[in-house]
C-alpha cells in the first residue's frame, strides 16, 4: 500500500502539443495573443458538443435534455448549446432574455427559483415560458397575473422532496428548504391549482448539485419518479413533463473520478417504462448545468512575479478569486482543495516545483492553487485553471477590489 497523496484525474480533455495546451484548435499561447489580454475564460465549443453527444448516447431516447443556464450564461455559449439540447432552464429574467434570443421555442424554456418578482413572472407569462412554481403564494400571484394579461400561464410545481440526494456537494432538496413546495403540502396546492386558470404541465424535483456517485443519483432518480407518481394522483390533469433536475458532477479535486454515465443511463432506461405505465404521455427531462459545460472551459491568467517567502514559492498572477471564486475554495467548499491547475505553455515542463498560485487581491483568500507541484514558471507564463466552464465568472465577486473584468471567448 502506498501512502502517496491522491492525484487529480489526468488531464485528458485538451491535447498538449510542444508542451503547450491546445484549445479550440490552436495553441493556448496563440489564443492568448488573439484575446489580447489576460486573464480570460475560454470555452471550447467542440468539447461542449462532444459532451452533449455523450449524454445522448447514454441516456434513453425518450429523456429530454435541458441546459440549466446559471452554470454558464455567456450568450454565445448559450446559443451554441441551444442548438443541441431540447430546452433551457433559466433562473432570472436576465437569463430568460438570453434564452429567448435563441431559437429554442418559449414553451421549451422553464423558469425556476424562489422569490421571482412580479415583473419577472409577468414577462415569463407574456413570453409563454413555463413557470416552475416554488410556493403556494407564487401560484396565486401567477394566476392573478395571467388573468390580468389574458393569458393562461403554463406551470409546473417545484417539489421539495421528502428525501435527500446522498453525497451531494450542494443539497437543493429534502428537509427544510427555500426551494419548492414541501412534498406533503403538494396535494393541497394541486387542489387549489385546479380552481385557478392555469395550465398544469407537471413536476420539477431537483435534489442536489455536484454529485459524482452514480448510485446516489440512481437512487434519487428512482425516488423522484416514485414521488411524482404518488403526487400525480392529486393533479388536476395529466403530468406531461417530469423534470428530475440536474446535479451530475465533474471531478475537480485530487482523488475524484468521473461520473459513471452509463450506469445512470441504464437506470433511467428502466425508469422510462415505469413512468409511461403510471403517467402515460409524460416525458422525463434532465436539466444539467455543470456537467454540460464545466470541463469545456478554462480560466487563464498570467504570472506577474515569482516570489519566495521564507522558502515557499508564490506565483503572483493577474487573475484571482474575483474572477474565479470556486477555484479559490470560497464557493461552498468546507476544506479548501486545489482545482486542477497547469502552466499552460509548459504543461510538463523541464523542471518542476511546488508553488502556490495567488492573485493580486489583498486578502489571504485569493489563492488559485495551494502548494501544488507545477512546471517551474516565471513572469509571463500562463497559468490555466481547468474544469472552469461552470460556475466560474458569473459566480464570482468581480467588483471586489475594482480590477477589470476578464474577457470570455468561445473557441
Ligand atoms: C442550478 C440548477 C440546476 C443545475 O444544476 P447542476 O448541478 O449544474 O447540474 C438545475 N436545476 C435547477 C433548478 C437549478 O437551480
What are the defining features of this structure?
single chain; 411 residues; alpha/beta; TIM Barrel; 2 domains; eight-stranded mixed beta sheet; binds pyridoxal-5'-phosphate
Short characterization:
The chain has 411 residues and is of the alpha/beta class. It has helices at residues 28-35, 45-58, 75-82, 93-100, 118-127, 136-149, 186-194, 214-232, 261-278, 290-293, 325-328, and strands spanning 16-17, 20-23, 26-27, 40-43, 64-68, 87-90, 109-111, 130-133, 154-160, 170-171, 181-182, 199-204, 208-209, 241-243, 283-288, 297-309, 312-317, 341-343, 352-358, 367-375, 382-385, 407-410.
Textual characterization of the structure:
Helices cover 28% and strands 25% of the residues. With 411 residues, it is of the alpha/beta class. It has 2 domains: 16-43 and 295-410, Lyase, Ornithine Decarboxylase, Chain A, domain 1 (Beta Barrel); 73-288, Alanine racemase (TIM Barrel). The strands form 4 sheets. Strands 4, 16, 17, 18, 19, 20, 21 and 22 form an 8-stranded mixed beta sheet that branches. It has an 8-stranded parallel barrel with strand order 5-6-7-8-9-12-14-15, surrounded by 6 helices. Helix 5 links the parallel strand 7 and strand 8. Helix 8 (214-232) packs parallel to helix 9 (261-278). The longest helix is centred in the middle third of the chain and has 19 residues, at 214-232. The radius of gyration is 23 Å and the shape is elongated. The mean pLDDT is 96. Pyridoxal-5'-phosphate (PLP) is lined by residues 68, 70-71, 89, 91, 112, 206, 209-210, 245-248, 287-291.
Amino acid at each position: 500500500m502506498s501512502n502517496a497523496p491522491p492525484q487529480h484525474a489526468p488531464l485528458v480533455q485538451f491535447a498538449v502539443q510542444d508542451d503547450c495546451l491546445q484549445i479550440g484548435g490552436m495553441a493556448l499561447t496563440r489564443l492568448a495573443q488573439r484575446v489580447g489580454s489576460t486573464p480570460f475564460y475560454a470555452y471550447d465549443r467542440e468539447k461542449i458538443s462532444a459532451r452533449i453527444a455523450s449524454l445522448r448516447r447514454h441516456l434513453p431516447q425518450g429523456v429530454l435534455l435541458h441546459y440549466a443556464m446559471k452554470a454558464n450564461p455567456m450568450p454565445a455559449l448559450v446559443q451554441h448549446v441551444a442548438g443541441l439540447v431540447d430546452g433551457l432552464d433559466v433562473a432570472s429574467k436576465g437569463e430568460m432574455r438570453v434564452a429567448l434570443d435563441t431559437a429554442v421555442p418559449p414553451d421549451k424554456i422553464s423558469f425556476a427559483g424562489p422569490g421571482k418578482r412580479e415583473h419577472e413572472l409577468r414577462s415569463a407569462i407574456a413570453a409563454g415560458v413555463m413557470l416552475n412554481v416554488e410556493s403556494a403564494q407564487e401560484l396565486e400571484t401567477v394566476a392573478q397575473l395571467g388573468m390580468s394579461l389574458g393569458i393562461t400561464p403554463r406551470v409546473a410545481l417545484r417539489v421539495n422532496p421528502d428525501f435527500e440526494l446522498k453525497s451531494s456537494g450542494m443539497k437543493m432538496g429534502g428537509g427544510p428548504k427555500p426551494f419548492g413546495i414541501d412534498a406533503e403540502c403538494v396535494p393541497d396546492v394541486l387542489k387549489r391549482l385546479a380552481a385557478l386558470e392555469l395550465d398544469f404541465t407537471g413536476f420539477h424535483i431537483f435534489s442536489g448539485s455536484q454529485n459524482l456517485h452514480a448510485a446516489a443519483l440512481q437512487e434519487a432518480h428512482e425516488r423522484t419518479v416514485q414521488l411524482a407518481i404518488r403526487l400525480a394522483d392529486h393533479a388536476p390533469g395529466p403530468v406531461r413533463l417530469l423534470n428530475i433536475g440536474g446535479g451530475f458532477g465533474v471531478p475537480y479535486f485530487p482523488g475524484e473520478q468521473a461520473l459513471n454515465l452509463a450506469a445512470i443511463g441504464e437506470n433511467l432506461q428502466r425508469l422510462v417504462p415505469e413512468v409511461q405505465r403510471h403517467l402515460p404521455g409524460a416525458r422525463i427531462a434532465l436539466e444539467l448545468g455543470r456537467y454540460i459545460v464545466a470541463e469545456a472551459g478554462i480560466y487563464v491568467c498570467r504570472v506577474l512575479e515569482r516570489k519566495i517567502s521564507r522558502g515557499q514559492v508564490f506565483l503572483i498572477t493577474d487573475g484571482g478569486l474575483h474572477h474565479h471564486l470556486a477555484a479559490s475554495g470560497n464557493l461552498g467548499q468546507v476544506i479548501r482543495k486545489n482545482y486542477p491547475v497547469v502552466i499552460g505553455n509548459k504543461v510538463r515542463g523541464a523542471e518542476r516545483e511546488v508553488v502556490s498560485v495567488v492573485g493580486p487581491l489583498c486578502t489571504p483568500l485569493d489563492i488559485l492553487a495551494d502548494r501544488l507541484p507545477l512546471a517551474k514558471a516565471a513572469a509571463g507564463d500562463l497559468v490555466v485553471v481547468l474544469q472552469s466552464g461552470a460556475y466560474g465568472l458569473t459566480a464570482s465577486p468581480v467588483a471586489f477590489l475594482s480590477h477589470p473584468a476578464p474577457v470570455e471567448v468561445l473557441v
